[in-house]
Amino acid sequence: MAAKQPGEDERAEDQRGGFLVRLREFKPKEVFTCKKQRGDVYFLRQLAKTLAMGQGLAGLICGTAVSSQYLAAEFHLNAPMLQSFLNYTLLCATYTSMMICRRGDGNILQILKRRWWRYLLLGLVDVEANYTVVKAYQYTTLTSVQLLDCFIIPVLMILSWWILKTRYRLTHYVAVCLCLLGVGAMVGADLLAGRDQGSTSNILLGDGLVLLSAALYAVSNVSQEYTVKNLSRVEFLGMIGLFGTVISTVQMVILERNELSNIIWSWQVGLLLAAYALCMYALYSFMPIVMKMSSATSVNLSLLTADLFSLFCGIFLFQYNFSGLYLVSLVVILLGFIIFNAVPTPTTTATSSSPSSSSSSICEEGCYENPGATEDDSNRDEDPGRILTEVEEEDEERRADKMDSSRSFREETDGDRTVKRSTKM
To answer: 0.90 cut: is pTM over it?
Structure first.
């Protein structure tokens, strides 16, 4: 039998002492109640915030729809590129100007040197997505537009899976199907109320334009999610404003010269154009914030209620017929949105490896995009300079108490050990 090395008895006693201290300090009630309650409260707060902000975005889209409807019905003004031009001009005046005032890598010249062609393509995609969906109303019915516009959801999920490495679960697919069922109820209510409006001059072309618009919107939204989570919200909006202004100006001069020359200007027309531009500007400004909190798919699920808000406004403004299916559709869509965000969507790999993304919200392996994720990294990304939370302070106090207890225990064991040795001698 091998002889014990000197000091093994002391180390064994120290280990037993440390274990006894940890066992004495262990509080299972805190593990299973306090932290769980904090997590539940945080989850509900984040879910409510995402739901409220998403419906705020839907309200802004409702504002653009109502103002466009007034312009078309009362003043016979159909100039989608003019309306888009006003929005991009506001974005350019605000966010591009902010980028010009920046220094270092965030300056607009540095960004244009590295990524100008990407933002040029992204600006082209965004402008054409807005143009094609408005153009589709001239060839197909409102019902077709509402149904086929949901094509953006599966395209978004595929692009998020491929580009952002987002992995969806069965619950997410069930939630998406529930939202699409709500859209079906809304379309059914439109048919029962006799609101199958729109042209039928070339249904095939109109439906194709709607599908093209949905695919372009999906590309734009996935690119937006990647940019705001890895680079900067100001950079995305500044570049979209810059290239969107240039592209929409060229396209407006080429395609809408006659419409612009035939506009009968009045203060009502100016007010409606300003209302449309401000709603679109607010939509573009706040959407990246909501998208950073959740995901592009989650945001577009919340925007499905925008048509319902427009219908509710139309009941009072344009004397639309009311149907109880509208309320059923609203409840079903909101339920599907809540279910989708109740389950986090983990990503398998980091979405960015560039050094410039170190100060922004980077979604690394095991992180979550939906508000159901844990409380740790999402709060730090939102406010890097915040003070320690209450949980961290309690953990530090607990660790300090453990260190004091372990020191006192070791002093006691050292004293006992000294007495034993003196007795043996």
So the answer is: no
- What is the percent of the chain with per-residue pLDDT over 90, rounded to a whole number? 27
Length of the chain: 425
Query: What local confidence, expressed as pLDDT, does residue 122 receive?
Result: 93
Exposure string of 202-223, with b = 16+ CB inside 10 Å and e = fewer, is eeeebbbbbbbbbbbbbbbbbb
Is 109 exposed, middle or buried (CB count within 10 Å of its CB: 0-12, 13-18, 19+)?
exposed
For 13-24, give one letter per residue: b (16+ CB within 10 A) or e: beeebeeebeee
88-109 pLDDT, tens digit each? 999 999 999 999 988 888 788 8
Query: What are the tens digits of pLDDT across the range 354-387?
Result: 444 333 333 333 344 454 444 444 444 444 444 3
The answer to whether the beta carbons of residues 242 and 112 sit under 8 Å apart is no
Mean pLDDT, all residues of the chain: 76
Confidence band of 393 (pLDDT split at 50, 70, 90): low
